[in-house]
Amino acid sequence: MPQLIAILPGDGIGPEVTAEARRVLETLGLDLRFEEAPVGGAAYDATGHPLPPATLDLARRADAVLFGAVGDSRYDGLARALRPEQAILGLRKELGLFANLRPAKLFAGLEDASALRPEIAARIDLVIVRELTGDVYFGLKSRGTTAEGLREGRDLMRYDEAEVARIARVGFETARTRGGRLCSVDKANVLETSQLWRDVVIEVSVEYPDVALTHMYVDNAAMQMVRDPGQFDVIVTGNLFGDILSDQASMCAGSIGMLPSAALDGSGKGLYEPIHGSAPDIAGQGLANPAAAILSAAMLLRHSLGMAEPADRIEAAVAAAIVGGARTRDLGGTLSTRAMADAILTQL
Ligand code: NAD
Ligand code: IPM
Ligand code: MN
Question: Does the model's pTM come out above 0.80?
Fold first, then answer.
C-alpha cells in the first residue's frame, strides 16, 4: 500500500513551491500517492472556510502533510476565525503538532547571500526547536474597552509544565543527535511563563546528563544570532520567540527561501512546510525559491516515512545545485522557480 502524502498548496507562492517539491518526490520513484486539497485563502474563496472539513480530514488520513503557505492582505478585513492563517494554526492544533524543527545551515556557496560577513555566515548550522501549539498564539484572546473607554486588545501568554516538558525533551533528544548542546531561550527576567519554562527545562535536564544546557534571554539570543550564529547547536524556545528567531536565522543562512520545517506530534505524524509565507509581493511570477519546500519534502521522508536515504539524496542534490551556481533572485541569481527545481532534479 503506497503511503499517502497530503499536499496543501495554499496561497501566493505556496502552489508554486509545493508543485516543485512534489515533482522532486515523484522523481525518486518511491511508493507514494498524493492527494491535494485547498487551504487558506484559496479554501476560503472556494468554500467559505480556510480549513474546510474535507481538507482537515485529508490531513488526518495522510501519512504526512506537505504544506505550502497561506495568507494575503485581501483577507485582512475578515473575522480572525476566517483568516487564512487560521488554517495552519488549526492544522497544528487539531493534529497535535507541538514540536517544530527548523534547521538553519549555510549551504556551501551561499556565504555571499547571507546578511552576515561570509566568515561568520559559514559557521551557521543550528536547529531551532520551536513549541508550536501553545504560548500567546493559543491563549485567551479578546478585544474590548477599558474603564476609560479606550479600545483594548488581549492575548494571554500561557504554558503549563507538561507542554514545556515535552518540547524540552524534543530539544534534548535533538541535541543528542547533533553537537550535544542545547540553549533554552526565554524571557525569564520578565515573564512568569518564561520562569516556568526555565524551571521545567532544568528539571528535565536531569534525564539528559550528556547534553550541555545553557539559558539565554531572547533579546540577547537575537543579538547573538547575528553576532555569531555558529555558537548555537540546538535552540529550544516558545512559539512566538521561535517564530521570530527562525526568520532571523534564515537571513544568516542566505535566504528565507532556504529554510524547511517539520511540525511533529511525537508519534511520527508530521506536517512539513517552508518557514516562509505566501510572499504576495512575488507570487505568480516564478520568482520564488523552491528550495525550502523541496528540503521540507526531504524532512517529510526522513521524519514521517522512515526514508532517510532518499531524504539524504534530496539534500545532497540541493547542495550540489547550489555549488554548481543555481540561484533564484533571493540568492542573487536569475533562475526561475522551475529552473531552480530543474537544477536540483538534474543532481538527483
Ligand atoms: P513572507 O515570508 O511571505 O515574505 C517575506 C519576504 O520574503 C517577502 O519579500 C517575500 O518575497 C520573501 N520570500 C518569502 N519566501 C520566499 C521564497 N521562497 N523565495 C524568495 N523570496 C521569498 O512573509 P510576509 O510578507 O510577512 O507574509 C505574507 C503572508 O504570508 C501573510 O499573509 C502571512 O500571514 C503569511 N505567512 C504564512 C506562513 C505560513 O503559511 N506558514 C508563514 C509566514 C507568513
Ligand atoms: C510561520 C508563520 C505562522 C506562525 C503564521 C502564518 C501563523 O509565521 O509558520 O512561521 O506565526 O507560526
Ligand atoms: Mn513565521
Answer: yes
